[in-house]
Amino acid sequence: MPSLIKLKKDLDSAEEIQLSVVGRKSGHMIPRPVWFVRDEDKLLLLPGSGSKSQWYKNASKHPKVEISTHGDTYQLGIRLTSSPDEVKLIVDKFREKYGAGDVKRYYENFDAAAEMTLA
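Above: the chain's sequence. Below: its structure in token form.
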């Protein structure tokens, strides 16, 4: 498994990652590209349709996920949140990284978010 230092470096140079979650019905890993924000030792995610997003629903049943970037794959635990204060902080960080216009264009519901600890 690649090092945590390499993961952080790879994340700092990536616009998106591949997130794979276990399907709550199929039981199979389901990959999808997602935007993210690295905030120190945390990886922040914002589901495009909020709590209605399929990957969010799947992660609520199976909180072990995989992320892939630059050809390397990492297994992490994911913590989901619907706390308005936490979601707002994550939305603001997405707006800083990707721009308010693109966040408005690609995200339709701001009632949920997720974070993973990189440690």
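The two ends are 14 Å apart (CA to CA).
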